[in-house]
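Convert to structure. Protein one:
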Amino acid sequence: MDGFSCRGTSVFTLNSAGVELSRGYSANVCGMSANFTVPVEADVAGGAAVVRICLDDGGMEPDITYYLCKRYGHP
């Protein structure tokens, strides 16, 4: 896998206090765009308050690098 042209997507759910509930990762995509589905859990009353989605380098924890993140939900 070419580390310069391959990327992954990480998805995190957070509760209302900003505590991470779960995370999931897409398959890596190299040299093109792709649709993906990443199942994540939010096992708290009312579900997750925030979902955070990050473009990453396709690496594995703990060495993954996040390039761009977007939060959806309550601030």
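Protein two, convert as well:
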Amino acid sequence: MSDLMNPDSWLYIAALTTVMLGGTTIIVTLTNRSTTSAIHGLRGELGGKIDRLQGEVNGLRREMSAKFEAVDARS
């Protein structure tokens, strides 16, 4: 009987396959979670900066409108 026909060989092959698939599953899951959390953190950080910049732009608009109104009032 050849070594591949031995039931113990198939048990070792099945065990090794199970360990390798389990390890691959863990690596893919952890990579996916860390990538997702990094994207969410970046999204929150950028959202805050965009809101701050939008507030500054709105402030500049109000300031420019007030100055234009002052120039128009002088005319």
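The longest helix spans residues 7-74. The chain is about 90% helix and 0% strand.
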